Amino acid sequence: MSSSLAASALSWWEEAGVDVVVGEEPRDWLNPKAKATAAEPSAPPPDALPDTLAGFQAWLAETDKIPFATAGAPRAAPTGDPAAGLMVMTDMPSIDGGLVSGEAGALFDRMLAAIGRDRATIYLAPLSPIRTATGAIDAASAVKLADLARHHIGLAAPKVLLLFGDLCGKALVGSAVAGARARWHDLATAAGPIRTLVTIRPEKLVDRPALKKFVWDDLQMLMEEVKP
């Protein structure tokens, strides 16, 4: 890890209130991991969806068959390395059009550095490539987006999936962050079950920094499962 990444990681740990390198609760590192909670699969996506990751990315960039698609509506494409083993999904693009950007983006970068990663060594994708005017997603659109996301996740086939926020949690594992975090879920995809964690989105941490300690607990679980 470079000196700049190390400094960023230390900054995140300090913000999260970390003063020891392990959690306060005892953890049996040698026993098999606890059985994950199985997430209920939704209806399979249409057969017409591209069956390669590159093809699906191109389809997402152009199709009018996704929720909120209108002429000229800006879309955010996935970023990073699909082969990294760690996929992160956020609900939608930030107001400026990027994925987890601005002050929340800077915090996200420090979170990644704290686990020995950066944006080049994860695969970051939105649940909805298009930001809604209200920042909310209606129930019917969430079902369609969840089907597309399962297809996307199956094509990327990460070792671990990290979901940010209530919208992603409800759409993909059937529960908001409060009921879903701090435990593993098995997300059903065409590539098989994907081990999935749900945690608090960086945008919320900017407004409520006291919640960072809970995210740090989740990141420790993540580090046990997937190495940089």
SSE series: HEHEEHEHEHHEEHH
The coarse silhouette is globular
Which structural class should the secondary elements be placed in? alpha/beta
Radius of gyration: 17 Å
**Largest sheet data:** 7 strands, mixed
Your description of this structure?
The chain has about 230 residues and is an alpha/beta fold. It has a single domain, classed as Uracil-DNA glycosylase-like domain (Uracil-DNA Glycosylase, subunit E). The chain is built from eight helices and seven strands, in the order H-E-H-E-E-H-E-H-E-H-H-E-E-H-H. The chain has helices at about 5-15, 55-60, 100-115, 140-155, 165-175, 175-180, 200-205, 210-225, and strands at about 35-40, 80, 85-90, 125, 160-165, 185, 195-200. A seven-stranded mixed β-sheet has the order 1-6-7-5-3-4-2, with helices on both faces. The longest helix has 18 residues, at about 140-155. The radius of gyration is 17 Å and the shape is globular.
